[in-house]
Amino acid sequence: MGKTLVLAEKPSVGKELARVLGCHQGGNGYLEGPRYVVTWALGHLVTLADPEAYEKAWQKWDMDTLPMLPQNMKLVVIPESAKQFKIVQSQMKRNDISELVIATDAGREGELVARWIMQKAGWNRPTMRLWISSQTDRAIRDGFAHLRPAREYDALYRSAQARSEADWLVGLNVTRALTCRHNAQLSAGRVQTPTLALITQREEEIRSFRPRDFWTIRLKIGGFSVLWKDSRGQSRIFDENQARTLAKSFEGRQGVITQVNKQYKQVPPPPAYDLTELQRDANRKYAYSAKETLNLMQSLYERHKLLTYPRTDSRYISDDVVPTLPERLRSVMVGEYADLARQIIRTKPLQTRYLVNNAKVTDHHAIIPTEEQPELWRLSGPEKNIYDLVVRRFLAVLLPPHTYEEISLTVQVDGQQFTAKGKAVRDQGWKAAYDQSYAMDEDEGEETDRQNLPQLTRGQRLPVETVQVVPGKTTPPARYTEATLLTAMEHPQVEDKAMAQTLAQTSGLGTPATRADIIEKLFSSFYIERRGKELVPTAKGLQLVKLVPEELRSAVLTAKWEDRLAAIAQGKSSDRGFVGEMRQFASRLVDEVKTSSKTYTHENMTRTPCPDCGKNLLRVKTKNGGEMLVCPDRECGYRRSTLQITNARCPNCHKKLELRGEGEKQMFACVCGYREKMSAFKERRAQSSGNKNDVRNYLARQEGSGQPKNTPMAEQLAKWLENNQSQGK
Questions:
Q1: CATH number of the domain encompassing residue 529
Q2: Domain boundary at 350, 376, 397, which?
Q3: Could you confirm whether 309 is annotated as catalytic?
Q4: How many helices and strands in the chain, by DSSP H and E?
Q5: Three-class secondary structure of residue 151 per DSSP
Q6: Which of 29, 282, 451, 673 is most buried, taking the most CB atoms under 10 A from its CB?
Q7: Antiparallel, parallel or unpaired: β 675-677 and 528-531
Q8: Which of 309, 316, 387, 480 is catalytic?
Q9: Mean pLDDT of all residues belonging to the chain
Q10: For 247-290, what is each residue's pLDDT tens digit?
C-alpha cells in the first residue's frame, strides 16, 4: 500500500499536520513520514485565467470588446506561487502516492483551493476529505480517524466554482465597462457595490438632515427625577416658549403617584460567537477592523490552537460537542476566568439550552475555546483581547439568565403626566462573565435615566422640589463604523416585505468569511476613508454608486445569489444554470453602462503630472490616514505616498508624527506645530538609542550584582527608558 498525500491550505497548518502525523523528514515545500506526505498551498495556487488568455483582443481595455463571455473558463497557475504549485504537483505524480486527503480549510473557499490544484495538476486517484473545526492534536487525530470520501463535498466545490465564475463574469465586465466609459479607475462587484451603496446612502441622509432644537421638562420630586410626556408618550417640545410656560406651571405644585408597576424580567445570555458577531464586538470595544479580527482569529486557531474554526456563520453547537464542554471549561481555568469556569463546571448538569441547537449549526459550530490549555503570556495584546471576548462569551452562554425587577411609575402634576423608571438586579446571571466596562448591545438599548427609586405607593403625594427645562437637538443618523456596517451587511434593510423575507433567509451581503475582504477592498479602491471609527465615502465612492447600474446596487440581488449558491452546495440547484444566468446578467449590465449618459468628474485632481504618462495625478487618502498621489490611468498604475502616519512620537506632545515629502526633502511634522528634517530625526534617534543601550546595560548589571534594585538612580533611569520607549524614540 502506498503513502497518503495530505494537502493543507497554508504552510503553518501543513507543518502542524505533519508533526501530528509523524512526518519529520524535511523536504522542499513538503514533509514526509512512514505513512504520510504533507504538502501545502499558499492560499490559492490556481485561479481563473485573465481575459487575454481567451482572446488577444481582450488584452486591451476597450468598450468594443465587451462583454467578455468565454464558453469554458480556464484555470492558470498564479505566477507568484508557481514554484510551490510545481512542488505540490510533483508530489501528486509520485508513484508511491496512492491517495490524497484534502486538508484545506473546511469551507467553500477551502474546497475550491484544493479542487483547482488537483484539477490543474491532473490528480485522478482516490481522494478523502478531512473536516475539522479546531487545530488541536486531538482534533487532527480524530479527524484522520473519520475521513469522508471527497465526493460527498462535490456539491460544495460546484458552489464555490460557480461563485468564482459569476464574480469573474459580472465583476470584470462591469469594471472594464465603467473604466472605459468614464476614463477612470472604477470597479464594481456583486457584494462590493451594494455595500458601498449602504455607506453612500447613509451619507446622503446625513447631508440632507436639518437639526431641530427641542426641549424636555424634568422635575425633582420626592428625591428622584421624573420626565414629562404628552398624551402620545412624546417628551420633546419643539417650541421653547411653550416648554418654559408649561414648566413654570409646575413650580410649587404637588405630584400624585397614579401608577406603580413592578415587573420581573429576565434576559437570556447572548448566543456564542460566529465570525461576524465577533468582528462586530472587536470593532466596538477595541476598534479592530474586520480584517484584523479575522487575522487574529486565524492565529488563535492555527498557531495557538486555542479557539475553534473562525469562518463560521453559526452561533450554536451540536449535541455531539456537549461531552467536550467540561474539558473546554477546564482549559480556561486560568487567570481571571478560573473562578467562574470552576463555578460553571460544578453545576450538574451543565446549562446548555442557550448553546446547543442542532438545527442552527451549518458546516461549523460557533467559535468556542478548544481543550488546549492556554499560555496567556505567549499571546500578543490583540490576540489576548480576542481570546478574552470568546472565553467570556463561552462562559456567559453557560450561565443562567440575568434577572431584575423593573419599576416604572407615573406621576401626575397639575393634570400633566410624568414618568420614571428604576431597576433592581435580582441575579447577575450571565453578566457575571463581564466587567462593568463592557456594555452589551441590549444594555445600550436601555433607557439611560434608570435610577434607584424609593418605596412608593399609588395615591401618594409628593412636593415638586425643582423644575428643569433641558435643551437638546435632533441628531442625524450615525455614520457606519465597521461594527455597524457588518450588521447592515448581515441584515440589509429593504422596504419590500417579500424581499425582506428573502434577505432574512440568506446570509445577507457576502458571507462571514468574505465581509472583511470586501471592506478592505473599499478602502484600497479609495471609495471610503476612515475618520476615527466612522466610515465616510469619498467623492469617488459617491459618484461610483450613481454610475453603476441600479440592479447591481441591490442588496436583495446579491442575497438571492448567496441563496442560490447555498442551494448548489446542498445539491438542490444547478451550478451551470446559475452561471448561465450570470452571463446574461453581465451582458445586460454592460449594455446599460454603454448607453448611460452619466458622467464622472475627478474632484481630487492635482496639477502634478504623472512622471510616467503625464496625466495629472489624483490625491487620495489611505486607510491609515496618510495621503497618496495616484495616476487616473489604469494602464499606467503609477502611485506614490506623500504623507504617512508613523509610529514615531512627537517630543513635545507625544502624538504620532506625520512623514511628508520624498527623498532628501522628507521631514516629520506634528499637528502641534513641531517640524524636524529626516536627517535630524535619524541623528536624534541614534543618540537616543545609544543612551538607551547604556541604561539597559547599567540596569542589567544592577540585576546581577546582588545590590538593591530599587535605588533612586535605578528607578529614575528605568522611568526615563520607559518614557523614551513609549515615545517611539
A1: 1.10.460.10
A2: 397
A3: yes
A4: 23, 24
A5: helix
A6: 282
A7: unpaired
A8: 309
A9: 87
A10: 999 999 999 999 999 999 999 999 999 999 999 999 999 999 99
